[in-house]
Amino acid sequence: MNLGNTLLNTKAVLVISLFSLLIVDQTKAFAENKSIQSVTEKRPNIVFLLADDLGYGELGAYGQKKIKTPNLDKLATMGMRFTDFYAGNAVCAPSRAVLMTGKHPGHATIRGNQGYYAEQKTWDRVALNKDELTLGELMQNSGYNTAFIGKWHLGVPEDTSTWASARGFDYAVQEQWGQSDEDTTFDEREHWINGQESSSFYDYTKFDNLDEFRTNFAIKFLDKHQQNQETKEQPFFLFMSYRAPHGHEWTVRNDQMYKEYHWPEGERHHATKITLWDQQVGRLLDYLKHIGEFDNTLIVLTSDNGPHNEHSTTSGKHDYKFFNSNGQLTGYKRDLYEGGIRVPHIAVWANKIKPNTESKHIGAFQDFMTTFADVADVKAPSELDGISLLPTYLQKGKQQEHPYLYWEEQRKFDNKPRKSLLRAIRQGNWKAVQVNLDRPIEIYNLENDIDETDNLAKQYPEKVKHFKALFEQSSVPAEHFPFAHTDE
């Protein structure tokens, strides 16, 4: 046989071998209920939708009767609705810290909206540690094109290296925070793009609400992602940190919605913010369909804590009870009772998550980082406190359970640090709450007392002792939040 024939035969063998491998891959794909196309398709995108102070009972899908949320209710029918899911904490910054680092509140860097700086004897914002991996960095390192749009609340104003743009997000749009939320009006606020000062101002006279303004940036990101040949081959991770229905979004352009109901102005304004936000989520989902990415995208929606009960400077006070914003639950934002921390959680993934399903799995914000690592097919860091939700999402395999969930929140204090710490634990159907370190531990059985009205501490002294031990072992000292470990 001459050299030419040898080469031809070798090529023929290679072609047959490669074809055989392709047939094996296709057969395996069919066996796993996948399409042939899925063998070569890129990894799934992830879109994370975070509301600000949305209560457990403020969506129609979770029992709301008055406020209209048609887009989110439809979304819930397309996937899985969780009934027993929890925020990272009962207030913005510490809750988002759990979400962004995968560490529960007893291990997280940030445990209150402000921390104590001992040398200056002052309270101020605390940033995530530079050496701890963020969710953005995990996804970016995994080959995702990452974007963050909206409220960050995990850095300090004067140091852009603590902002989203420096913590794992290729494209980041966030407003410039003052020393407090009230320093600058939210009606006209400058936004920074990729850590650089921008001429883009939110002007409520031009947009229905702040979330419309920010959704424009999200669509811009998706459009650019699709048009750029390099990024188009990547999956994307889009974190939408919405503003609604936070109490400090004082003004919206649409001032006629719900007028026919003659509700108090503060309540009409609150309902309007939620419905306008619902419209913007619908707009974003429609755009995902428009660019052909909806079916290959895991969409997750939740809220950073329970409903607020705050006064708006322009429209009057909102009472969380008016719309049953926490459903049957007791408490609201800043409480570690169920109303402050149990939140909606909807997950949608076409042809992966079964439509119209419900899960009673007990999970929390620390689970998202581990879950998204699983979805991205990368290994999550071993020091995380989260558990992947993927077995529950896909209804495949055994779902690992948390032995218990722990929360602590540090509030500002003048001279009584023991009274500034709240903590809680859920273990199975049992819940322990301690309002401050000078108050006794309360015990509730959520199976038949979901609204936490029957304190069983006197009937179960052994459980009080058990939960006290869990409280002590669940929290490690934190530089600016030391008061879980004070004897003062």
TrEMBL record:
Superkingdom of the source species: Bacteria
Signal peptide (UniProt feature, chain positions): none
Gene3D superfamilies for this protein: 3.30.1120.10, Alkaline Phosphatase, subunit A (3.40.720.10)
Domain Sulfatase N-terminal: 44-378
Transmembrane segments: none
Family: Belongs to the sulfatase family.
PANTHER family: ARYLSULFATASE FAMILY MEMBER, ENDO-4-O-SULFATASE
Name used for this protein in its record: Sulfatase-like hydrolase/transferase
